[in-house]
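Design job #97: recover the sequence.
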């Protein structure tokens, strides 16, 4: 039988043949669409992939015919050869299947080469997975991920255009838009995750907390642990040292700042107020909360520069593994399913690159879904692979053991206290990736409570800012495209008539009720913090 030596037949743009031999390596538990290499695709085109399965004998016959028809044969081929080859091809045995999820209209991208920034934390995972699994490639995007040394530099680089977008603290787009710190409009159409933080104290402080509350001496003390047993330690330190008790958080508008403030204040410890003349928030403070970059938290704790801190993973687990501290509470127990990070871009960038932005959100939705995928028993099936990827030096760069402690659905408080926490990191389920207006409003209430917003605002202002910064319409448009491509189920996103406000909740450590439609009432419900005129609730 003649053979095509040029290789043209196999390299042409005709529909590819795939052998029924399934011995080629694939990722365990993943679909072929998720496993296959994803080539860069041109923008503004349609792509359709057909998978044709034949046995090797039929494939050989088809290739022989192709060689004859394309001229890739020698002069000895006769009509008899052609007829003989054709007789061996049973058309009824050729299975042609088109994967509906592989057919999609490519968006007309304004820009395809993008650079996104991130901080070395496990909740950068959706960006990393979108790149490593090829979801960005699928949208025609060539994405570079660049680590940033701290949150301020990251924000500045988004504002000045060095970065097209970034892994951001959920409060950063809000703070930047209204001018808490640097003023520059930032928007988000994607929430990267829920939960994921913890509060860790030094071994010395933990021992003192155990003395103040004997119940904490249990190998598995009852959780959540309030700051009540910390209060006498803070009071004594303030009296003896003549200055506030030192603790760390990652950034003034971070979830961490508001969470540790919430935890302290719920037990009557004043974490300090921001004023026009005190942008560090130390006024009236019993605890001084200093800004420390996340990866530097453990070394600051070990050096006794701070006595405790609030940070994301893997830096609480790092304290456990190295034996320098004890996590006392996670933010899941401060506020169940709280928003943590978002993907942020400059408002001007979003306006200039609407199709590119949409493509990015599509890829991130797929990444979030992949991260939270489970088997029939509810086991997270992709997290081990995610841990392997995140542990690389170009991403989080921490030991696999440290990262897996939280990412695999468990959390280590002490060697004697290892707890199942399947929702410690949530990337997609519970509508975690949707940009809810109510989440934005919660951050605004905390900024006002602690004085970062220096003047009273009417209730309507909170809703207006939330709608300026959080862009669910972009998320929904991206999700609708994925639904049409067969990559997302309509039930996996909020219903079309959803107004962007999560249900009223009391799932906070103090049981306080949060209703995003009554921000003034919520601000006034706390014993510690600013108060506003109730008449503003009707404006």
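Job complete. Output follows.
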């Amino acid at each position: 039988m003649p053979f095509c030596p040029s290789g043209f037949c196999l390299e042409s743009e005709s529909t590819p043949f795939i052998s029924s031999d399934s011995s080629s390596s694939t990722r365990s538990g993943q679909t072929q669409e998720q496993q296959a290499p994803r080539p860069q695709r041109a923008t503004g085109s349609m792509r359709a992939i057909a998978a044709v399965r034949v046995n090797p004998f039929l494939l050989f016959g088809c290739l022989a015919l192709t060689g004859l028809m394309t001229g890739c044969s020698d002069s000895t081929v006769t009509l008899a050869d052609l007829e003989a080859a054709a007789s061996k091809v049973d058309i009824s045995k050729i299975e042609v299947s088109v994967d509906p999820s592989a057919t999609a209209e490519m968006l007309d991208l304004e820009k395809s080469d993008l650079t996104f920034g991130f901080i070395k934390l496990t909740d950068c995972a959706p960006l990393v997975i979108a790149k490593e699994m090829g979801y960005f490639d699928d949208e025609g995007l060539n994405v570079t991920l660049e680590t940033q040394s701290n949150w301020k530099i990251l924000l500045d680089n988004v504002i000045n255009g060095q970065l097209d977008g970034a892994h951001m603290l959920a409060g950063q787009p809000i703070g930047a838009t209204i001018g808490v710190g640097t003023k520059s409009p930032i928007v988000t159409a994607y929430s990267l995750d829920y939960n994921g933080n913890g509060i860790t104290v030094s071994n010395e402080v933990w021992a003192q907390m155990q003395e103040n509350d004997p119940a904490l001496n249990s190998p598995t003390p009852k959780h959540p642990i309030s700051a009540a047993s910390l209060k006498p330690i803070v009071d004594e330190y303030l009296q003896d040292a003549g200055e506030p008790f030192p603790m760390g958080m990652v950034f003034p508008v971070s979830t961490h700042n508001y969470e540790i403030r919430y935890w302290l204040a719920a037990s009557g410890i004043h974490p300090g107020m921001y004023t026009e003349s005190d942008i560090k928030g130390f006024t009236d403070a019993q605890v001084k909360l200093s800004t420390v970059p996340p990866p530097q938290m453990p070394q600051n704790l070990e050096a006794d520069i701070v006595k405790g801190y609030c940070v994301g993973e893997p830096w609480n687990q790092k304290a456990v593994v190295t034996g320098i501290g004890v996590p006392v509470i996670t933010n899941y127990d401060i506020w169940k399913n709280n928003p943590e990070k978002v993907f942020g871009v400059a408002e001007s960038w979003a306006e200039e690159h609407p199709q590119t932005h949409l493509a990015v959100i599509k890829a991130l939705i797929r990444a979030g879904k992949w991260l939270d995928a489970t088997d029939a028993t509810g086991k997270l099936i992709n997290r081990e692979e995610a841990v392997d990827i995140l542990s690389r030096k170009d991403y989080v760069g921490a030991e696999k053991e440290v990262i897996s402690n939280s990412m695999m659905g468990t959390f280590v408080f002490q060697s004697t206290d290892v707890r199942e926490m399947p929702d410690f990191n949530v990337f997609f389920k519970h509508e975690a990736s949707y940009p809810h207006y109510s989440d934005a409003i919660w951050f605004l209430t905390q900024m006002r409570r602690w004085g970062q917003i220096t003047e009273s605002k009417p209730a309507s202002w909170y809703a207006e800012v939330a709608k300026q910064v959080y862009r669910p319409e972009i998320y929904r448009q991206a999700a609708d495209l994925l639904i049409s491509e067969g990559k997302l189920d309509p039930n996996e996103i909020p219903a079309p008539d959803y107004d962007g406000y999560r249900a009223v909740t009391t799932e906070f450590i103090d049981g306080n009720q949060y209703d995003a439609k009554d921000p003034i009432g919520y601000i006034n419900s706390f014993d510690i913090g600013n108060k506003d005129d109730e008449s503003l609730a009707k404006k």
